[in-house]
């Protein structure tokens, strides 16, 4: 028996005996771990495979990028359809948005790498001559006009930069996703324990 005056009828004076029933509803996380979290982690890891593929293999890298983006979008829509529509942002929404950002950034990374790899620097064009003494630079000796010297193009600076960006992405993307997982699960676990403890205390009272 509770005092309904203090809880329900704030404008009417008096004491009204009543019975209060509290329903504590908790959503089990096991289903979403199997159906959403684990598959989305695997899709994000799959998007990183493109960092190890050759830059010139455009069909393979573009296919992986588009496949992971479309798969993440489909999974996000399916997860939202299984949950009630609410006005606030759920923890699952935050997870799917971040996963979509990771796979989309992986696709954009190849676009940047592809553009940079096609840059050919004029400094790569030099003259060389091969003879009995080996290969030497013709500048300062015969000049590029000599018949013994030929012009060649060295490795473009842009391709070297593109390879370095791929190597950098191989480390940054996994580390960033690991940091996000640590922050996400620490916050979610603390909120889940807090809700569980409050529900158990209210039910005991």
Automatic annotation (TrEMBL):
Keyword check for Cell wall biogenesis/degradation: no
Example GO BP: chloride transmembrane transport
Record-level Gene Ontology MF annotations: excitatory extracellular ligand-gated monoatomic ion channel activity; transmembrane signaling receptor activity
Domain Neurotransmitter-gated ion-channel transmembrane stretches: 36-120
Keywords: Membrane, Transmembrane, Transmembrane helix
Any one GO cellular component localisation term in the record: membrane
Pfam families from the UniProt entry: Neur_chan_memb
Positions of transmembrane segments: 29-52, 64-83, 95-116, 172-188
PANTHER family from the UniProt entry: NEUROTRANSMITTER GATED ION CHANNEL
Name of this protein: Neurotransmitter-gated ion-channel transmembrane domain-containing protein
């Amino acid at each position: 028996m509770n005092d309904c005056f203090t809880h329900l009828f704030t404008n009417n004076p008096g004491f009204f005996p009543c019975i209060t029933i509290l329903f504590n509803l908790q959503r089990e996380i096991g289903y979403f771990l199997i159906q959403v979290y684990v598959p989305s982690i695997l899709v994000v890891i799959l998007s990183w495979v493109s960092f190890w593929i050759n830059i010139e293999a455009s069909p393979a890298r573009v296919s992986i990028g588009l496949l992971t983006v479309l798969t993440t979008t489909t999974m996000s829509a399916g997860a939202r359809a299984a949950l009630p529509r609410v006005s606030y942002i759920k923890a699952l929404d935050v997870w799917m948005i971040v996963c979509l950002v990771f796979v989309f950034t992986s696709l954009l990374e190849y676009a940047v790498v592809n553009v940079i790899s096609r840059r050919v620097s004029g400094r790569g064009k030099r003259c060389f001559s091969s003879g009995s003494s080996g290969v030497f630079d013709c500048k300062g000796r015969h000049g590029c006009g000599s018949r013994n010297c030929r012009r060649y193009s060295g490795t473009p600076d842009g391709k070297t930069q593109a390879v370095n960006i791929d190597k950098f992405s191989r480390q940054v993307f996994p580390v960033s996703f690991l940091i996000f997982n640590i922050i996400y699960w620490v916050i979610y676990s603390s909120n889940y324990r807090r809700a569980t403890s409050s529900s158990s205390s209210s039910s005991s009272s």
